[in-house]
Amino acid sequence: MPQDLKRYHRQYLYRPIGEEGQRKLCASRVTVIGCGALGTIIANTLARAGVGFIRIADRDFIEPNNLQRQVLFDEEAIAKNLPKAIAASERIKKINSQIVTEPIVTDVNFTNIENLIRDVDLVMDGTDNFETRFLINDACVKLGKPWVYAACIGSQGLTMTVIPQKTPCLRCVFETPPPAEMSPTCDTAGILAPAANVVASLACTEAIKWLSGNQKTISKNLYSFDVWNREAKALKLGKCEPRPDCPCCGQREWAYLKGSESLRAAVLCGRNSVQIMSGSAKSKVNFDHLSERLEKIGKVSFNRFMLRAEIDGFDLTVFEDGRTIIKGTSDLAQAKTIYAKYIGM
Questions:
Q1: Whole-number Å distance between alpha carbons of 263 and 210
Q2: How many Å apart are CA 2 and CA 306, to the nearest integer?
Q3: Which of 119, 167, 172, 334 is the most buried (most CB within 10 A)?
Q4: Which of 236, 257, 288 marks a domain boundary?
Q5: Does the structure show a pLDDT above 80 at 240?
Q6: Which candidate, 248, 212, 240, places its Cα nearest to that of 30?
Q7: Residues spanned by the domain of 67
């Protein structure tokens, strides 16, 4: 905890926080899962608020179209070929050197989610898909960790705070993911930066309430808004209690945490890209050896974090754990074929 709280003076002048609340914030630990539009704003806001430890978990790398809304990145980070988690952590260190950040470049899935959240006080949702959110929900309810759901698309956003066994969990509200044909994505609807800023700011306000000792003021509603039309409403969640028949907090089935609902390949939002997970990778990828093989058929560059290759009109990005993002297709079968042909690990 920092000895001098002067940098947070304007914040703890706000009476509900005060110096005691600020010290609680400085001693708090948070995991941010996903470091895109929502995740960067969340991590940036909590770092400036003085949250003492921020773990940032993200699987992805930075592209130019991210800069429209992902506030911790710039052109220099793209030129350096940095993964999002690394770039975000480096930027936060320049913003607030008093706190600790832990960047983890990984795909958050059923094999690692519990370790990512077990030692923190709160989990923040910066993801872009329901599968990962349901996974977070399973793990947080199982471990008794509060978390803040956040989502936005186009000009609209949603946020809800989940306190296990005290409020409805995500699956109390959305028992199953919406059908693909009913779910707009970045590809079909786009996204406005102000929408991401609003929903992330609301989510961070809930986080600051919880971490500063103002738990009684946590919202028990699902809040929705549309920044373009200036519409907002709070949706009351029944009796604001967990549902006994909920498959997660009621029945405690943990379907997503057990992996029974997990995919090994997934289309990435707004990217014309597919991520392939390597189930057989037991150790870090040797980029020297892989580059020697791929240089014979395409253009290759790599650093200690990832390897990128341009082959037959596709862009392949390979991470240390064997995960590969194939850009140039949204067809899972085609992506798996490309992976088997060029990576094959």
A1: 33
A2: 35
A3: 172
A4: 236
A5: no
A6: 212
A7: 6-236
Q: Tokens 């989940």 — which residue?
A: 162
What is the mean predicted confidence (pLDDT) over 117-131?
Answer: 94
Closest alpha carbon to 127 in 257, 266, 34: 34
For residues 223 and 279, membership in a common domain is answered with no
Task: Give the residue-averaged pLDDT of 284-306.
Answer: 90
Asked whether residue 1 carries a pLDDT value surpassing 50, the answer given is: no
* pLDDT for the residue 183: 54
Last residue of a domain, one of 219, 236, 253: 236
The CA distance from 175 to 152, in Å, is: 19
Looking at residue 164, which CATH number applies to its domain?
A: 3.40.50.720
Amino acid identity for residue 293 in this structure: R
* Tally of domains within the chain: 2
Phi/psi at 277 (nearest 5 deg)?
-95, 135
Specify the residue for token string 């406005």: 192
CA distances (Å), 69 to each of 44, 258, 326, in order? 13, 34, 23
225, two tokens: 């808004």
Report the length, in residues, of the chain.
Answer: 345
Residue 338 belongs to domain with CATH number: 3.30.310
Do 215 and 313 lie in a common domain?
Answer: no
How many CA atoms lie within 13 Å of 219's alpha carbon, on the beta-carbon side?
21
**28 vs 303: CA distance, rounded Å:** 33
Residue 337 DSSP one-character state = H
Name the band, by pLDDT with cuts 50, 70 and 90, for residue 241: confident
pLDDT category of residue 180 using cuts at 50, 70 and 90: very low
**Among 253, 285, 3, which Cα is nearest to 137's?**
253
SS3 content of the chain, % helix, strand, coil (to 5): 35, 25, 40
